[in-house]
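lol forgot to send this yesterday, sorry. struct tokens for the thing we talked abt
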């Protein structure tokens, strides 16, 4: 059992001391939703997502009010998606096959991590390598004389060509879509231009809001494992894409690297967090960008 608590923190030393129940109640009234939802099975890199009811005027105060703890101790960072939504992203992967209890402003929920399904896209080698709980999976689609046959967990792939490179980084799977229509105009490329496209794509695993997926690409089978020809997505054979789609969970990591296949972000025990200061009297009004409540706080848009 991994227990994670998110509690209110004081903002001013002069605040009157009241019970933590009152603080949590005040914070909870400002929160619209928390994800993952109760009992949801997620991947080992799923962030804790908090959405506020109103735009946040001072993000630093909001972050101080959310004190995320876990056992074993985990460190992390805040990433604001927009003026109302913040992600707390762990610095390491959550332990696999674990139950994680969350309490955010008095709102309690749990999430369950499944197996650690880690995908590593190697741009230079044109490969997508998958491990499950640190081990290459045994039952994979038939090779069909494809490149890298016999290398455990290695799928031939094609990624972004030089003018549309697949960005290097570590991503968390955002969604799984059995069928999706991909329209190049959504990323600024006219459909009728030489580089334009309008495609119905199967087995699509989304890893960025902008529209980068791991997906089936039957039109690219002949270049898989040999050349990068996509507009940024990680393209696999239909059989491999279907297997990955059915294996991965939302929240599992996808790591895009140029050369090395070494997987970063191992699960490690982090140093214990510092003890919290005394409780605050109430949720400070400046946390919310509500003109009627605090007209001097400017609206803050997503960075």
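and heres what i got for the seq, position by position
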């Amino acid at each position: 059992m991994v227990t994670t608590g998110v509690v209110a923190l004081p903002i001013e030393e002069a605040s009157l001391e009241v019970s933590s129940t009152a603080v949590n109640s005040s914070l909870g009234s400002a929160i619209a939703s928390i994800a993952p939802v109760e009992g949801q099975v997620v991947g080992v890199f799923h962030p804790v997502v908090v959405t506020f009811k109103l735009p946040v005027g001072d993000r630093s105060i909001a972050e101080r009010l959310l004190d995320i703890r876990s056992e074993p101790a985990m460190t992390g960072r805040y990433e604001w998606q927009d003026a109302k939504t913040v992600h707390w992203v762990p610095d390491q992967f959550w332990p696999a096959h674990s139950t994680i209890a969350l309490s955010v402003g008095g709102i309690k929920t749990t999430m369950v991590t499944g197996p650690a399904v880690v995908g590593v896209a190697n741009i230079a080698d044109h490969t997508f390598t998958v491990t499950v709980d640190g081990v290459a999976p045994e039952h994979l689609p038939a090779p069909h004389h494809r490149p890298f046959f016999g290398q455990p967990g290695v799928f031939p792939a094609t990624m972004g060509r030089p003018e549309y490179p697949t960005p290097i980084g570590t991503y968390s799977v955002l969604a799984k879509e059995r069928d999706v229509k991909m329209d190049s105009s959504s990323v600024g490329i006219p459909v009728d231009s030489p580089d334009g496209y309008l495609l119905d794509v199967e087995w699509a695993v989304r890893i960025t809001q902008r529209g980068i997926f791991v997906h089936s690409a039957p039109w690219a089978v002949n270049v898989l494992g040999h050349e990068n020809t996509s507009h940024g997505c990680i393209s696999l054979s239909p059989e491999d894409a279907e297997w990955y789609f059915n294996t991965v969970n939302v929240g599992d990591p996808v790591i895009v690297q140029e050369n090395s296949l070494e997987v970063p972000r191992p699960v490690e025990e982090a140093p214990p967090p510092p003890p919290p200061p005394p409780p605050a009297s109430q949720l400070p009004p400046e946390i919310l960008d509500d003109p009627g409540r605090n007209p001097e706080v400017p609206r803050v848009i997503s960075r």
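Residues 2-23, 261-284, 290-303 have pLDDT under 50 and may be disordered. anyway ping me if u want another try
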